[in-house]
Specification:
Layout: E1 41-47, E2 51-54, E3 62-68, E4 73-79, E5 85-93, E6 96-102, E7 111-116, E8 120-126, E9 131-132, E10 136-139, E11 143-147, E12 152-158, E13 169-175, E14 182-190, E15 193-199, E16 203-209, E17 213-219
Parallel strand pairs: 9-11
Antiparallel strand pairs: 1-8, 2-7, 3-6, 3-8, 4-5, 4-7, 10-17, 11-16, 12-15, 12-17, 13-14, 13-16
């Protein structure tokens, strides 16, 4: 699995907020929720400024349901036991919502570093809460899906982030259904992109994206 890490000196507008969310002089009452299949909350943290929070979900794979309601910057880094940054889960500005997958390989996340200038909430939920990929799905930002079908061809499309100079990144990995174990990399591109990749069977799909993306399945 490859981890995305954007240098602090390379900051740009970041991930596109969910549909209908734009920066304005009046702050929306609530950022929209990311795609979700529901499920119990294993840990809930929140704040309205910079904070470092210890994860209490041990080393099991979990999905992080992330929502930011502030107008300004919002950065979330996953930290290891030594509080070193393993990966950057979010790097954006303004109201925003997405989902991230952690502990799905041999890099255990022990804490989260959040940098924000407005209200934010992060909920840890079970991987069983991933949205089902039933034929096709579309998301405006990073998300986690589960696929239960047989071998097939995945058609992927990254629309890109028009606010960034490079068009934004698009990295898609697959994992075992339990989240324990990396399987394959379906895409690793910068800017708008369209292509196909094989899916051998049931799995979790974790897409990290700076802009809207979609996936559709065609069975063999």
């Amino acid at each position: 699995m490859k981890w995305f890490q954007r240098g602090q000196g390379q900051r740009h507008a970041g991930v596109v907020p969910l549909s209908g969310v734009t920066k304005s002089e009046s702050l929306p009452e609530q950022a929209p929720r990311p795609l979700s299949a529901g499920g119990p909350v294993l840990q809930r943290i929140g704040g309205d400024s910079d904070q470092v929070v210890r994860m209490t979900t041990d080393a099991e794979p979990v999905i992080l349901d992330i929502v930011h309601q502030g107008r300004g910057h919002f950065v979330v880094d996953a930290l290891d036991a030594g509080l070193h940054s393993q990966s950057q889960l979010v790097y954006t500005d303004g109201p925003f919502a997405c989902r991230a997958l952690v502990n799905a390989d041999d890099r255990t996340v022990r804490a989260l570093r959040v940098q924000a200038d407005g209200p934010w909430v992060i909920e840890a939920i079970a991987v069983s809460s991933a949205l089902a990929l039933d034929g096709a799905a579309r998301s405006p930002a990073s998300n986690v899906l589960h696929y239960e079908g047989g071998p097939g061809i995945a058609s992927l499309c990254h629309e890109g982030d028009p606010r960034s100079e490079d068009g934004g990144y698009f990295l898609v990995d697959t994992f075992e259904r339990s989240g324990n174990g990396f399987l394959d990399e379906l895409a690793n591109h910068v800017g708008p992109w369209r292509g196909e990749a094989p899916l051998t069977g049931p799995c979790l799909i974790y897409a990290r994206s700076d802009g809207p993306w979609s996936i559709s399945m065609q069975s063999l």
